[in-house]
Design goal:
The protein is an alpha+beta fold and 99 residues long. It is built from 4 helices and 4 strands, in the order H-H-E-E-H-H-E-E. It has one domain.
Length: 99
């Protein structure tokens, strides 16, 4: 085993597992007409059961880091809000896995 491989192995052992990873890894999102799965950041906060006062920029950064590891890409899209108005919504997109 090379020195670099041993470093990667040691790093993987030392990296603590985030408690949100099991929840975020099972998210599928909504598949659109173009075959791309999308999910809004607000929907992710709902899945994590975070109250509104804990939906901070720091929490969004943690979600972004985990979602990138899981193969999602951050996007901004136009969507309807709860009040029926068009607004720019932040979220994530990826091609759905074939299973």
């Amino acid at each position: 085993m090379s020195f670099v491989e041993r470093l990667y192995e040691a790093r993987s052992i030392m990296t603590p597992s985030h408690p949100w990873i099991p929840i975020l890894s099972i998210l599928n999102g909504t598949i659109g007409h173009d075959g791309v799965a999308r999910i809004a950041t607000d929907a992710i906060f709902e899945q994590l059961d975070l109250p509104p006062f804990k939906r901070t920029p720091e929490a969004a950064k943690q979600i972004k880091h985990i979602m990138l590891q899981l193969g999602w890409t951050p996007v901004r899209a136009r969507s309807l809000t709860a009040r029926g108005r068009a607004a720019r919504v932040r979220g994530y997109a990826r091609m759905p896995s074939v299973a």
